[in-house]
Write a sequence for this structure.
């Protein structure tokens, strides 16, 4: 899966929508972890049991404390109300612990989730469209990656999207980062093409197939210009939403089946939707 990360401003969010998106992200991440039976460790080339008995889940307080500090610094009144309205830039950590026959339990793999919102702008103005940057990501990654003997899978969700430079910070010697955002109500995730991901990438795939198909259908309704110009291709959708081509094609099939003036053209690659006139 690959999603384009643009240099322009991201979608504008207010405090409430950023907080809701952050909560939704962590709910989906927790559900994905609960459904995960094993986690691959590229450092030992082993898959470890990730069930509840071998998983320690905790939240780190460092970034929520920074939100409080920003409110004290920039809010003019109603500090507690502002804090309640704000996203907290949460950090959730799932440690996968393994015990050999002889020895003490040790953390082998960490799966972490981090949320990013432009706190200062949200405190000052109540809304923002400033994308998260590589600098933002690197600061949080350094909080999480604490041991050379542990492998870290990090999910990074920005409520306002990511700058293109964030791609510079998504793969390292003992860590991989999945960048997530939301565009027009659709969850998107971008992974580096790295074989160490294996099945762990599915943890950060935040949408069901049905949600992805519906997101493609919504996307098509907002891009009628490309349809009229014969440019509404599966590659165009892939570039914008990052969904696998079978998902895009299923959405195209449904749209063509419901609209007599739209055809799903599979005669040449890339497949596309075209407008018909009779």
């Amino acid at each position: 899966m690959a999603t384009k990360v643009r240099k322009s401003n991201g979608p504008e969010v207010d405090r409430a929508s950023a907080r809701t998106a952050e909560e939704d992200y962590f709910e989906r991440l927790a559900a994905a972890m609960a459904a995960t039976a094993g986690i691959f460790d590229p450092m030992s080339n082993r898959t470890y049991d990730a069930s509840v008995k071998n998983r320690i889940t905790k939240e780190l307080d460092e970034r929520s404390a920074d939100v409080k500090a920003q409110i004290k610094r920039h809010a003019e009144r109603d500090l507690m109300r502002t804090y309640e309205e704000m996203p907290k830039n949460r950090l959730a950590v799932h440690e996968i612990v393994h015990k050999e026959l002889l020895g003490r339990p040790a953390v082998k793999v960490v799966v972490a989730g981090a949320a990013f919102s432009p706190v200062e702008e949200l405190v000052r103005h109540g809304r923002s469209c400033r994308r998260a940057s590589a600098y933002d990501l690197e600061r949080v990654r350094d909080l999480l990656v604490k041991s050379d003997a542990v492998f870290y899978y990090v999910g990074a969700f920005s409520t306002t999207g990511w700058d293109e430079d964030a791609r510079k910070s998504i793969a390292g010697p003992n860590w991989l980062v999945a960048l997530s955002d939301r565009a027009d109500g659709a969850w998107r995730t971008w992974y580096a093409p790295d074989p160490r991901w294996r099945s762990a990438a599915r943890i950060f795939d935040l949408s069901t197939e049905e949600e992805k198909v519906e997101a493609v259908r919504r996307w098509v309704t907002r891009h009628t210009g490309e349809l009229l110009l014969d440019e509404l291709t599966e590659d165009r959708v892939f570039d914008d939403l990052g969904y696998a081509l079978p998902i895009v094609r299923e959405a195209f099939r449904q749209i063509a089946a419901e609209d007599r003036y739209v055809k799903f053209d599979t005669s040449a690659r890339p497949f596309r939707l075209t407008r018909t006139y009779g």
